[in-house]
Each structure stands twice: as C-alpha cells, then as structure tokens.
C-alpha cells in the first residue's frame, strides 16, 4: 500500500521538507482588491502587508472542493492507495470542509484531519505524520499521529492590532475590544481550534518576555520533549529577539523560525509574532 500526505499552505512548511517527504501542499487563496492568488504563487506576506498598509481590501479563500478532488485523483493516478489530508483548524477556515467533501468522492480512501491549530502547529503535525509514514504506512495510524500532535500543540500570537482578525471574522467584536486600549499589545492563544484572548501587555519587549514565559511553561507541561516554532509577519527583529530568549530558556531545544505566510499575515496584520510549542510524541 502507498500512503500520500496532503496539507494546506498555512502549514508554512519549507520547500525542502515538502520535497524530501513527498508532501502535497494545497494552496489557500489570497485576494487583494479584485485579484486572487494562490499562496506561494505570485503572492507573499510582504505583498499582503504592503496591501494592508495601503488600505487595500485583503481577504482569504479556502481551496474549493474541486481543487482537493483534483489533487486526490492525481495522487491516486500516481499510485497512492490511501491519503491522509491534514489541515488548519475548521474553526478558522473552511479548508477542512472542502477536503471532507472531496474525500467522499475520491476513488481511494482519504482520511481528513482537523488539526485544530494553525501555522507551525499544523506544520509540525504534518512533518511528524510524514516521517512516521515511512515506517508505519497505515492511514489510521498516521491520521492519529497528526490529530494528537496538532491538538496537543500550544500556540500564542502577539499582534499590533486586533482589527485584521476582527474584519476577517476570526474573533468577535467583544474580543477585539481587548486591544482597544491605547498602547496595549494583545496576546492571543489558539485554544480549542479558535483564537481567544490570553493576556495583554504594554510594550513589545514585555510581549516577547511573556511569550517566552508561556512557551517555557507549555514545554514543562508537555514533558520537556518539544519542538518550538517562532513565526512573524514582517517582524524579523522581534522574532530574532524571541528566538534568542527561547534558546536561553530552553537550551538544547531547537527553535524553528519562519514567516507566517501570506494567508495568516492577512489575518494578523503587520508586526505580529507567534510562538508554537509542539510535543514530540512517542508512537
């Protein structure tokens, strides 16, 4: 039996990992004014942040079920006998629903996983599933790995403003009020697949310190064997400071840094930083 792994572009996986492990990535779309792009093709987080700064309308769109159906059919034609399709939280995007609809009509069994997380929380789950598929190519086992890894991940975001999340419908008006006070930096948590308020601080240096504390506490709660990811939307200096602080707090634990990508940047806005703590689970 041949197992194929599919995910979406919000996993923020580097191309070399995708190629090495044979992962198929379905692009989520970004629309700027009246032009629509596939993430990773003609659009970057830099383009998105420039558009937001200029006041242009920016939105994101789930891949259509037909896109997933086409990909599942292509993988089957290449010899895949089972597919595990792993995606960002269904509470934040219709991508999971599109995959489920396409899976019902696929000519090979497709197990669709709702990771209940985003960004590198999803990315670490996908990489763990793909790594394990080389040793234990059972779709149910691999889907379980992705589910457990994604749902056990802890993730926090610090944003300059909650307006982009509010406009995109990812948080409510009442939640957005957390950041309405002058000079407050909201810290948000991905919890139960949703983005919810976690804390608020007054300066970015304090935000970095607080994110470091949260990651340290999460690593301890998860038994110490973790992977840590730090991501940003046009905030490289901030993320370098956060990575350095995490390196001191968690010596010996590798810290992966990456861009948040065009889709996630469209929702969190310029200057946002995020940290993900994902447990290394024994299978």
Task: Explain what you see.
By secondary structure, the chain is an alpha/beta fold. 42% of the residues lie in helices and 25% in strands. It has 11 helices and 13 strands. The protein has helices at 15-21, 45-53, 65-77, 95-105, 119-133, 139-152, 163-167, 173-176, 204-221, 236-249, 261-268; strands spanning 3-8, 24-26, 29-32, 35-38, 58-61, 82-87, 110-114, 154-158, 185-191, 194-201, 226-232, 255-259, 273-279. Strands 10-9-8-13-11-12 form a 6-stranded mixed β-sheet, with helices on both faces. β1 (3-8), α1 (15-21) and β2 form a beta-alpha-beta unit. The two termini are 20 Å apart. The model has no long low-confidence stretch (mean pLDDT 89).
- Count, helices: 11
Q: Give me the secondary-structure category.
A: alpha/beta
Give unreliable regions as ranges.
Answer: none
Strand order of the largest sheet: 10-9-8-13-11-12
Mean pLDDT: 89
Strand content: 25-35%
Large-scale geometry: globular
Radius of gyration in whole Å, from Cα? 18 Å
Helix content estimate: 40-55%
The N- to C-terminal Cα distance equals 20 Å
N to C succession of SSEs: EHEEEHEHEHEHHEHHEEHEHEHE
Instruction: Tally the beta strands.
Output: 13
Give the biggest sheet.
Answer: 6 strands, mixed
